Amino acid sequence: MENQSCVKILNEWDIVSARQLGRNVAKELGFGTVDQARITTAISELARNIFLYAGQGQICIEKMYKNGKVGLRIISLDKGPGINDLRQVMEDGYSTSGGLGAGLPGVKRLMDEFMIDSNPGDGTDIQATKWLR
Amino acid sequence: MNININVNDNETLTEISVSGEIDVYTAPKLRETLLPLSEKEQVDMIVDLSGVSYMDSTGLGVFVGLFKNVRAHEGKFKIIGLSSRLQRLFEITGLADIIDISSKVEGDVK
Amino acid sequence: MDFRNMMESKYREILVNYLKDGSEQALYQSQKFSRNSMEDSIPPEEIVSMHKSLMIELFPDFTPEMQESFDILLEVMVGYGFAYREHQNLKHIQQELRTEMEIAANVQQTLLGTKVPSVEGLDIGAISVPAKHMNGDYFHFVKDENGSVSIAIADVIGKGLPAALCMSMIKYSMDSLPENRKSPTLVLENLNRVVEQNVDLTMFITMLYGIYNIENHMFTYASAGHEPGLYYNASEKEFTELTAKGLLLGIEKTTKYRQYEKEVSPGDMIILMSDGVTESRTEEGFIERETLLSLIEKNIHLEAQAIVHNVYKELEKLQDFHLQDDFTLIILKREV
Description:
The complex is a heterotrimer of chains A (133), B (110) and C (336). By secondary structure, chain A is of the alpha+beta class. Chain A has helices spanning 12-29, 33-54, 86-89, 104-110, and strands spanning 4-9, 57-66, 69-78, 113-119, 123-131. Chain A has one domain (4-131): Histidine kinase-like ATPase, C-terminal domain (Heat Shock Protein 90), CATH 3.30.565. Chain A has four helices and five strands. Chain A has a five-stranded antiparallel sheet, covered by helices on one side. Chain C folds into two domains: 2-93, Methyltransferase, Methionine Synthase (B12-binding Domains), Chain A, domain 1 (Orthogonal Bundle), CATH 1.10.1240.30; 113-334, Phosphatase 2c, domain 1 (4-Layer Sandwich), CATH 3.60.40.10. In chain C, a hairpin with a 5-residue loop joins strand 2 and strand 3 (149-156). The radius of gyration of chain C is 31 Å and the shape is elongated. Chains in contact: A-C, B-C.
């Protein structure tokens, strides 16, 4: 069985597919309903960012097994314009879409681990992991 | 606390009329709307302030900026419709001596 | 996990009680519960999830549809929880900023600090209160060897942090031109050059600079667009405006300033202020100049410091303790 599956994000409906994929994996790994909802919300945010700012990219869901722990990792990859000031986008209250609570700091809080890598002109790579407790 | 800015910008003349209150909160809007207009070469600008009920120093700053810009682009700048209170503000600050102001406008009460 | 179990048993108790007797008491308990959960930063989706599992436990015939309906509520609440956590964090950041501003305000006070000098024959009072944390008004006294006092009062456009930063520049420039301190016009002309080169297009500063000669009691001054001062003639019991024409600092490179003189007799007063005094606004409109004059008159028998203090207190009250602008008032009173 493969540990990673991906969904291409080209339009808004792909957000639903990415959520579905994330929910299935989360359920399978044994995450409760609250964590399922958090994981899918994080997926929505990341997928929405791809669709709004990068145009296209993909969301991958990976099952994680480390030191006896089980987890789920969301990987968001795009080849969009990238982010100039990472510090700024990781700041609360900064959101170009102006949405309440939207944005990467929120995703970071919903998950246990968060990593972002972005170079202007080179796209953005985000990995967010949640561990089963 | 609201402000209304009306711009009538044509080839030869840029007419602006402002009404409401110009303070720290509304001045940025005024600045954003008017400063770009003052960057045209040899612009001829008339600003009517007869509808302005209050203006603080931040508001005055916007007009100072406009005046400096217009002067740098060799244009003409004139302010009309100053209430007696605003007239005093322009006189105290010495701006009345360098900016063309005219308090005589129709219906200037008080 | 202990904590979670505690929360859950508390919630169960409230729920069971309410379902039994529908009492207001139980509802009040749930209000208290929500306060406690917020204190412990429990996000809303946790509560929904708890509610769902309790309902399933308490009502074995709870239909699958009813159970699933909570999934929608849970999903919606995750969104609210998302915003709630951001709000919590922003509140924290705001607190940090507030602390930082308070520290900055202290730094500013130290940086711009000036002592009201004690001069024989002259009673001086001064007060300066910022509308927000940082003060865009500035005043400074210097007493020279022969006892004369020079006074600077300035106001930067706007208020708060930007104004305060700009004011620090003025203070620094003033400190670096001691040799012309004796000529108000030279001081203003020098400062004007500094300001003109260093400020944004829409920024300007007003300043009144004066020297009180303690030997002949002559007040020599010049103004750069500053709010006019007042002169109180004690023998006539009359206020007049201290006329002074002069352009704001920072408008033109080569502005020239004019010097004015006023002879001060025993009991007379020189009153200097920022526009925060004349621009005081109440619900009904501006505070009239007469109001200010009558406030000064009411306190005229007091020492200069008491006059400025009392006038400020009264104007503050008239404005419902909500200052519109930085407020500075200085009084020089020639002793009788």
